[in-house]
Design brief:
This protein is α/β, with parallel strands linked by helices. It contains 10 helices and 14 strands. It has 2 domains: about 5-170 and about 225-250, NAD(P)-binding Rossmann-like Domain (Rossmann fold, 3-Layer(aba) Sandwich), CATH 3.40.50; about 190-220 and about 255-330, UDP-galactose 4-epimerase, domain 1 (Alpha-Beta Complex), CATH 3.90.25.10. The N and C termini lie far apart (about 40 Å). The mean pLDDT is about 95.
Length: about 325
């Protein structure tokens, strides 16, 4: 049985990964400081309360468990906050990752899966976006992720630490069994915001901009179901554990949906009226972000099972109704 350390395993993506790894009979150690994650979201395995900023915490977990590989999800992700508080993002996303890599080398662990992002590309020069697209991140969040990718590349050349970087476009949806889902504070992702409006937790959803160069004038994004995202991680992890070299993969459906299409689909799924307010476009929002995930399909054997937008929204809606019910009981 291989032992996997999931750093940031109490968050949205990390918690879904933990569940899948346990199902696949891995021994799972979750390492999290619970600053944005939730202890109750870790559905099994062993939990270690620790902080990446503290090398002694890291050293203890590596010395206590026979770790075979690391999956790293412990990043701050809010683009707007990264602009107003870049120090927070460079410290957590870059410096703390340096701590993790150094302790991995110290303890002889040389397999790492890194949660990267489409934000490293910046304004797209063409779509769909493949792995070779120029990297020009438009905000500190994207820059920290691109810096870590370069750091991993340097650590591979110098020390033989192999890493696979998975660049997500828009992770969405929830566990089909409704045990897990999105629970950000504050919530900034479109689909949960739309569904919170449908459920009555929010009064309205604001659409930023109607004059983009898209069929309906609203931004187009590539949504990939959290379950499909986790499957890609599992496939990449298995390759790493079998000695595969470092690599990078874009993860998306290859089909984008506009903001207006998401709202329309949500109304159909929920059978609820959703109040929409139209606001001005936001600086930095690109018209279209769509992934070319051909490489992941061909080399990892990745085959997304939940590519349909209505399915993504249906699973997220089940989760939203459950959260609403629990808050009502509380």
């Amino acid at each position: 049985m291989k032992t996997i350390l999931v750093v940031g395993g109490a968050g949205y993506i990390g918690s879904h990964i933990v569940k899948l790894l346990l199902k696949e009979k891995y021994r799972v150690i979750t390492f999290d400081n619970l600053s944005t994650g939730y202890r109750h979201a870790v559905l099994g395995g062993e939990f270690f309360l620790g902080d990446l900023a503290n090398r002694d915490d890291l050293r203890r977990v590596f010395q206590h468990y026979p770790i075979d590989g690391v999956m790293h999800f412990a990043s701050f992700i809010q683009v707007g906050e990264s602009v107003t508080h870049p120090d927070k993002y460079y410290q957590n996303n870059f410096v703390n990752t340096l701590n993790l890599l150094d302790i991995m080398l110290e303890q002889g662990v040389k397999a790492c899966l890194f949660s990267s992002t489409a934000a490293i590309f910046g304004e797209p020069l063409y779509v769909p976006i493949d792995e070779k697209h120029p990297k020009n991140p438009a905000n500190p969040y994207g820059r920290t992720k691109w810096m870590v990718e370069q750091l991993l590349n340097d650590y591979d050349r110098a020390y033989g630490l192999r890493a696979i970087c998975l660049r997500y476009f828009n992770a969405a949806g929830a566990d089909p069994e409704c045990q897990l889902g999105e629970c950000h504070e504050p919530e900034t992702h479109l689909i949960p915001l739309v569904l919170q409006t449908a459920s009555g937790r929010r009064k309205s959803i604001t659409v930023f901009g109607q004059e983009y160069d898209t069929p309906d004038g609203t931004c187009i994004r590539d949504y990939v179901h959290i379950q499909d995202l986790c499957q890609a991680h599992l496939l990449a992890l298995e390759q790493l554990l079998h000695g595969a070299p470092s690599d990078v993969y874009n993860l998306g459906n290859g089909a984008g949906f506009s903001v207006r299409e998401v709202i329309t689909s949500a109304q159909q799924v929920t059978q609820r009226n959703i109040t929409v307010i139209y606001g001005a476009s936001r600086a930095g929002d690109t018209a279209r972000l769509v992934a070319d995930a051909t490489k992941a399909r061909q080399q990892l054997g990745w085959n997304p099972q939940f590519a349909d937008l209505s399915t993504i929204i249906q699973h997220a809606w089940q989760w939203e109704l459950q959260q609403l019910q629990q808050k009502g009981r509380g």
